[in-house]
Amino acid sequence: MNCSWRGPRLRDVLRRADVELENKDKSHVAFASCHTKVQEDDWYGGSIELERGLGKDGDVILALERQMNSEPLPANHGAPVRIIAPGIAGARSVKWLSWITVQSSESENFYQKRDYKVLPPEATDRKTAEEYWDRTPAIQDLPVNSVIASPQSGDTVRLDEAGMTEIRGYALPQGADGPVVSVEVSVDDRKTWKVAELIAKNGSKWCWALWKIRVKMLVGDEQAVFSRATDKAGNVQVAHPTWNLRGVGYNGFGESRDIKVFAHKA
Fold first, then answer.
1. What is the pLDDT along the chain (266 residues), one digit of tens a residue?
2. pTM of the model
């Protein structure tokens, strides 16, 4: 979700420690939280590419106990200090930060090495996944995506006098390729698409884009709505993303199904 975070840039912290990018293909910056054991490891950690951490436009920060939507950062959101790495999977934005390490390999933590990876379709269960964990890269950039917030699957919709209803949702760009520039909506099983209105613009390439549109819908018990987003770099949601065991990195069309649509009641 959209939040306001404040704190020093990771880039400035690393440069203060005289860290320089020498080999962008083999350099990483890792984050660790060692305050308590987690389900699959003695500590929680993650890492991103050092090039991203040192980038002028990466906007990776150490969020302090100063501001979250203009309020102090609460403990359940990572106080007193956490990483915020916009555009990157949230698993890398480590809370309750203990230390930062610059290293030649990814974090050795379980949740970097054995989770949050888009495994190939050949990995169909825990056993067949074993041979792919070490050779599949950890997910970093999130894919372009959109979600229909209203109506949701199974909802009931009452059309207005014009036979129309309003559909709302949000969208996010792929990695650093924002902002979202377009969201389209279909109510005829993806045969035609209408462009939604982007609202609550704030100029940040990282932020979710809220959208809305008024459309005509057919009366019936099993109606469906689909959405697809496009970002500034031209990344577009796909109809049928490749299946993966963990279900991560999904960027299929936004969907709301089995919507009961009733005609206007005078």
1. 577 888 999 999 999 999 987 766 689 999 999 999 999 999 999 999 999 999 989 999 999 866 666 677 888 889 999 999 999 999 999 999 999 999 999 999 999 999 999 999 999 999 999 999 999 999 999 999 999 999 999 999 999 999 999 999 999 999 999 999 999 999 999 999 999 999 976 668 998 999 999 999 999 999 999 999 999 999 999 999 999 999 999 999 999 999 999 999 87
2. 0.90
Q: Where are the alpha helices (DSSP H) in the chain?
A: 10-16, 50-54, 110-113, 126-129
Helix (H) or strand (E) holding 185: strand 180-186
Reference 84, options 3, 204, 21, 155; nearest CA is 3
CA 2, CA 5: separation in Å to the nearest integer?
A: 10
Instruction: Read off the amino acid at residue 5.
Output: W
